[in-house]
Design brief:
Helix 2 crosses helix 3. The chain is of the alpha+beta class. About 35% of the residues lie in helices and about 20% in strands. A hairpin with a 4-residue loop joins strand 1 and strand 2. It is elongated and about 55 Å long. About 10% of the residues are buried. This is DNA-dependent metalloprotease dvc-1-like. Keywords: Nucleus.
């Protein structure tokens, strides 16, 4: 299952099922070198480690930073607290919609879904018309 976010990965604990998972954002990480995938995975594994050890991990605090620095020092990795992937996220927005009304607003999206139009229609009176999509559409089996 793909998720569409600026985040390259995340760790989640589901209280109802008791399951934990680390998810990586494949579309973003496919645009980056392999070492970035490894470092994002290590970052999320630190969250997982702190969780199973019952060590409070609030906003990448001291415990997280100590673990991150230890792993970086011992492995030569370059795990960071924040990994900006804004360029890659924007590059994934290949479905473009333009308002045919007076505002001419341009909306770029990752998913092939028209922007919500009720509020916009009240404000501008226009409709969003698709003006660009990927040249080589992928099927769900490719994802």
């Amino acid at each position: 299952m793909l998720f569409y976010s600026r985040k390259a990965g995340y760790f989640a604990h589901y209280q109802i099922t008791g399951k934990n998972e680390i998810r990586l954002n494949k579309p973003i990480l496919n645009l980056r070198p392999r070492k970035d995938t490894v470092q994002i995975l290590l970052h999320e594994m630190i969250h997982y480690y702190l969780f199973i050890k019952d060590i409070p991990d609030i906003n990448h605090g001291t415990a997280f930073q100590n673990e991150m620095e230890r792993i970086n020092r011992e492995s030569g990795a370059n795990i960071t607290i924040i990994a900006p992937f804004d360029y890659e996220y924007e590059a994934l927005k290949c479905h473009w919609w333009k308002c045919d009304g007076p505002c001419g607003e341009l909306v770029k999206r990752i998913r092939n879904a028209a922007p919500g139009s009720k509020a916009h229609k009240r404000k501008c009176g226009g409709n969003f018309i698709k003006i660009q999509e990927p040249a080589n559409k992928r099927s769900k089996s490719d994802l």
